[in-house]
Amino acid sequence: QVQLAESGGGLVHAGGSLRLRCAASGFPFGNVGMSWYRQADGKARELVASIRASGETDYIKDSAKGRFTISRDNVKRLVYLQMNNLKPEDTALYYCNTGDTWGQGTQVVVSW
């Protein structure tokens, strides 16, 4: 069964950092690209970052460039999203994704 499980969200003050983690199972993880999306209340889900199977970063949302880093560990079947200098506008439910598979999301709240 294909599964993605996110963790690492929480409540932080502006300027703080969080590292999101996505554990994958049930598919050939090392062969597929992975992505992080987010959805804020009342807004559409948006792509934040994506990474190729090789580990090369494929995309970082403009507003996240210089602050967010996506990485992966193909041995441990994990994908990370390191988020630094967080801003209140980064508040959202963050999802891990590959193809048609989504995790349950992990909530990030950034306060002033």
Largest sheet geometry: 7 strands, mixed
Q: What order do the helices and strands follow?
A: EEEEEEEEEEE
The value of Rg in angstroms is: 13 Å
Structural class: mainly beta
Calculate the terminal CA-CA distance, rounded to whole Å: 40 Å
Number of helices: 0
Q: Which word captures the global form?
A: globular
Mean residue pLDDT? 97
The strand count comes to: 11
User: In which range does the helix fraction lie?
Assistant: under 10%
Strand content: over 45%
Low-confidence stretches: none
Give a written overview of the molecule.
With 112 residues, this protein is mostly beta strands. The chain is 0% helix and 54% strand. The protein contains no helices and eleven strands. The chain has strands spanning 3-7, 10-13, 18-25, 34-39, 46-51, 57-60, 68-73, 78-83, 92-98, 101-102, 106-111. The strands form two sheets. Strands 2, 4, 5, 6, 9, 10 and 11 form a seven-stranded mixed sheet that branches. Strands 1-3-8-7 form a four-stranded antiparallel sheet, with no helix packed on it. Strand 9 and strand 10 (101-102) form a beta hairpin. It is globular.
Summarize the structure.
This protein is 0% helix and 54% strand.
Topology:
Elements (H helix, E strand, L loop, with lengths): L2 E5 L2 E4 L4 E8 L8 E6 L6 E6 L5 E4 L7 E6 L4 E6 L8 E7 L2 E2 L3 E6 L1
Parallel strand pairs: 2-11
Antiparallel strand pairs: 1-3, 3-8, 4-5, 4-9, 5-6, 7-8, 9-10, 9-11
What features would you highlight for this structure?
seven-stranded mixed β-sheet, four-stranded antiparallel β-sheet, 54% strand, single chain, 112 residues, mainly beta
